[in-house]
Every structure is written in C-alpha cells, then in structure tokens.
Amino acid sequence: MQQYELVELNESNIDAEGCYCLRSKPSSTGYINKNEWLLGRFEEGLKYIKITENGKAAGFIEYTPIEYSSRVVHGENYLIIHCLWVQITGKGYASTLIDKCLQDGRDQGKDGVIVITNPNTSWTPGKDVFLKHHFEDIEHAPYGFELLVHKFGKSPDPYFPKDWEERLNRISGLTILRTQQCPFLDIATDNVVEAAKKLGIHPEIIDMKSREQLLRMSPTPYGVYGVVYRNQLISFHRLTVHSAMKRLKELSGGKVNVC
Predict the structure, then answer these.
(1) Fold of the CATH domain 164-252
(2) What gap in Å lies between CA 150 and CA 142, rounded to an integer?
(3) CA within 20 to 30 Å of 2's CA: 23, 56, 180, 215, which one?
C-alpha cells in the first residue's frame, strides 16, 4: 500500500531534508543558496512542505505571509503560495498540499490565500487545480500573469501594482534583477551573462534584498527574477544561452559585437 507523508522543513532538519528543487545537485550554488535563504525565512512564518510517497519525494509547496512574500502583489493579512510542484501525479497530492496551506491560513487567522499563475510558463503553479479549490481569478497583469485568491471572509481583495511600463522605462541597459528564492536562478543568471558576453554587452546584476525593493523594482508579479534590456522585458524565467542571445539580438536591432 502506497503511503504519503508531509515533511515540513525547519532549522533542525533542513540539512538532512533540503529543498525539493535541484536536490540531485546538493553541491550546486543554487541549491546551497536556496537552503540558506530558507533558514532566514522560517522565523518570518514561511512554510516549505514536501510530500513523500513511500519515502520518495513526490512534490512540495512553499508559502509565506504576504508581508514577507517574494511575489509582487499588495494586500493585508494573506498567505501567498510561492511554489507548488508535484512530480507523482494523479493521486491528489497537489490538493493535499493546497488543503494544508488553506488550513494553516485559517488557523493563523488570515483573510485568505493568494497564488499568482501564468498559462504561458511552467515557472508558476498551474491554475486549474486552484480553481477546483475555490480560488477566484480576480486580476491580470502584463505577460500573462493572473492573480487568484481564496478568501475566508469579506476582506479587501489583494491587487497588482499598475506601473509595469514605468518600471521598464527606468531600465535601459541589460539588467538582471534577482533574489535567492528559486535555486534555478543562479543558472538562469549565468546563461544570460554568457549570452551577453558573446554579444559584447555588459550586464548589471541587482540582488534584491528586501520586499520593499522587490515591490518597487521587479518588472513582473513573479518578483524573484527579471531580465530587462533597452526598456523591454527579456524574460522572467530561465533561458538557454541560445535563447537569451536571440532575444538580445532582436532588441539590439542586430547591432551587437559578437565575440
């Protein structure tokens, strides 16, 4: 009989358990940075819960109070789901993890739970499973982002900022804005830097250290990663070196120095 277990990461078990993503490469910079980032977030109320099947990792969920969230959305007294990923499908594990988050929200006296989705990428959770759990799609932002909320009462809705174009207009050179929330962002950054080097473009890397900085500067609701060049969004998720080069060439009008 197959059995599942929920394993919540904390200060005492993180060395043994570690995060779900990049677990096959525990010596990688991204994996190490993610675990260090988690250690700094537990006292803020962040929950990182893995689900296992007969001892084998099957998926995870990460969520936190909105005032400490890495997503660009405004509101009060909500939990925000950063990530939801299930590898073993068809067994209701995603629903189990969502139910755990919803129950935590009720137990903590929150007004509801928020998640940001995007149908154009796998870098955000899928939308359909949340609609089955009575989340409502209440607002959209550029590049396909959707704001979903499950409210426990009649509290004010959360909302996206409205100044996305102004944020892009403040950035002219190639700029990578990032945090350590996702372990794959180290690889994503390296790929853009390598592509830029081949084209003779100098990138600036901005490591966002606070939610206030992220809320002010991020070019998308995703928050933790964004690449901007000549006032245009290159990407908010990992690109291959080839894809990054192609996009940079398009925005440069072909006027680059290929090394």
Answers:
(1) Glutaredoxin (3.40.30)
(2) 22
(3) 23
The residue to which tokens 């009989």 are assigned? 1
How far is Cα 66 from Cα 103, in angstroms, rounded to an integer? 16
Domain residue ranges in the chain:
4-151, 164-252
Q: What residues have CB less than 8 Å from 218, skipping those under 6 apart?
A: 72, 167, 177, 208, 224, 226
pTM: 0.92
Q: Are 23 and 50 in contact (CB under 8 A)?
A: no
Over the stretch 233-256, which tens digit does the pLDDT of each residue have? 999 999 999 999 999 999 877 555
Q: How far is CA 187 from CA 33, 176, 242, in A?
A: 12, 12, 14
pLDDT in tens, 90-104: 999 999 999 999 999
pLDDT at position 252, please? 79
Q: What is the mean pLDDT of residues 218-242?
A: 95
| CA separation for the pair 52, 93 (Å, rounded) | 9
Which positions ≥6 away from 243 have C-beta within 8 Å? none
Residue pair 108/119 in contact by the 8 Å Cβ criterion: no
Mean local confidence (pLDDT), 65-80: 97
CATH class of 4-151: alpha beta
